[in-house]
Amino acid sequence: MQLTLVNFFKKTVPGHIFRGKRRLVKPVSKRSMETLTREYERQEQIMFLLRHPYLTLEQSSGHAKELQKREKLVAKWTDEQTRSKLKPHVTIEERLQHLRVKEAWD
């Protein structure tokens, strides 16, 4: 009974408590400020690393050619064993061959 009376006379915000003209505003604490400061410092460090890359444009332009990844990928798909797993190419003529009964036109 006493809990009901306390809740009945409690002054609350009308409507949604975190939106609108009479909303509840969470007070800023020291811990939340420190967390936000750490997050901004972390983002700034990431942006610094992105602004100053490890390799220059000249160094990064040909580094993948030495690894020959593209050639290995092409060789993998041109292998006869891999080609045998794929379905053969079908043309429209082969697909519609059953419609050709006789060549003579009426």
UniProtKB/TrEMBL annotation:
Transmembrane portions of the chain: none
GO BP annotations listed: mitochondrial translation
GO cellular component: mitochondrial ribosome
InterPro entries for the chain: Ribosomal_mL63 (IPR016576)
Gene Ontology MF annotations: structural constituent of ribosome
Pfam families in the record: MRP-63
Record's protein name: Ribosomal protein 63, mitochondrial
Organism: Drosophila navojoa (Fruit fly)
Organism ancestry: Eukaryota, Metazoa, Ecdysozoa, Arthropoda, Hexapoda
